[in-house]
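Two proteins were folded this term; both appear here.
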Amino acid sequence: MKGILIFILAMVPLLVPAQQVLTLEECLTLAETNYPLARQKVLLEQQFQSEVNVLELQKLPKLDLNAQSTYQSDVTRIPIELPNADIQPPNKDQYRATLDVNQLIYNGGSIAANARLKQAELKTRQQEVEVTIYQVKERVNGTYFKVLLLQEQEKLLDSKMKILQERAKEAVSAIRNGMALPSSNQLLQAELLLLEQQKVHLKYERKKALESLSSLTFKDIALSDTLLKPEILLASNTPLNRPELKLFEYKAQQLDISKELIDKEKSPSVMGFAQAGYGNPGLNMLDNSFQEFYMVGLKFNWRLFDWGKNQEKKLGVEALKQVVATEKETFVLNNEIQLQEAWEDISKYREILEQDAAIVNLREEVIASNTSQFQNGTITSSAYIIDLNKLYDAKINQKLTEIQLVMSQAKYKLIKGDF
């Protein structure tokens, strides 16, 4: 029996879920790695490879098998009669089957330019995915600090409840010795019930926020898990590193390659061809019999004048480049404004935090004095609770300011692109 008991006690830790300790960096990495849109980068790479393979196939010879049977209302005839010659006109029913081979020899590098354009399009689309994922990081950041604040509020409530439970024990002893009225303990018990109610509210609010964080990070996060308050170091002299900047750069590169491709449209092209066939008539139209035949040659094409079509295309692409440039300029300007606002918030919360510390110190001195007076029966439970509430309101404000300060620092790094 004793052995079974020892076995059960040994298994208990294995049955209780292990508590996790998570950091902001871990949550951001999980969101970046596991977000469904991240898989698009691989899919886009696969699409790019398929499109480039199709372009490369244009360099291979094209084989076409053709066959036709026709009947025509009239045929070519020689309008004169020649002595000692009987020239029969072609049959009105004619038959032909051919194998045609066409081989691209030169097209001004159009295939290579198209491949470069596909590569530029791939970079642009993959960077668009990066921009979207970075926006998800902003949601993770906000949700993380919401959970962190609720977590700290719960800790403060637990601390406050512990103090009130100690005062309640002292009140029961005082009532028993006739040094206090029963209402003294009743007030303390009512305050404890109010704290329990607040804990229930905070628990469910934290549960909702954790469910959102779990959905964003694709990781199960339980109420028993702990989120660490991050230590954030700011470097104000580092350059802007937002993924949007690369997106603007890739868009501009894509448009430059588009202009190169437009220029390639004016290049001459050379094509080799061959045809082998069997038909009636063959190449000799005056021989009314089935014949084998073949033909080989070169085709040259060069569009000398396009009425300014290519030039208009290039002007359109240049206009799009200017649009991208203005979008980048606007983004950088708005980003600088956001950075300045975030920096002002950091300065504000640092200053408020100093005042919060002073307020909490003063409130702690007051409650220390009130605790002694309560134990000696010189103040009522009501007066003690009022000052205790003021102390914990000050502590909650202090904790809120601490988290708002760290959240502003994290926001500054996100705006700058350092996460």
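Next, the second protein.
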Amino acid sequence: MIRKVFVAAVLIGTLAVSGCAHVKMASKDSDAQAKLFTPTADKATLYIYRDEIMGAAIKMHLLIDGVAAGDTGPKTYVEQVLPPGTHEITSKSETDATLTLTMKAGQTYYVWQEVKMGLLYARSALHAVSEATGVRA
């Protein structure tokens, strides 16, 4: 009985300390502007999004071409305007996920950052998705 109480106390304490992932969010105006999905004529626009609650207490770090590009939490996204060409997107997790995209100027690209159960930490996968799927998320 004492063991069960101890385990429950540890679990409750862990949950209280960990809370939910907190990522820096844009203002409501910036968010509304980004969700117009207006491409830039001489650049490529990239949206990387998480549309699930899985891994809610964990923020996922993103790199583009080896440079920090932001973090995602549940039901959030990162928007990046990039020069045309080939770019490597990395989602840092228990096992890093990498996706390489060749992007054209004036086009918008959408990547779903899927969160998966890991052994010690969450895992992720990156999926290029269609515009219809990306806008809907």
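Residues 21-136 form a domain with the Immunoglobulin-like fold (CATH 2.60.40). The chain has a mean pLDDT of 81. These notes refer to the second protein only.
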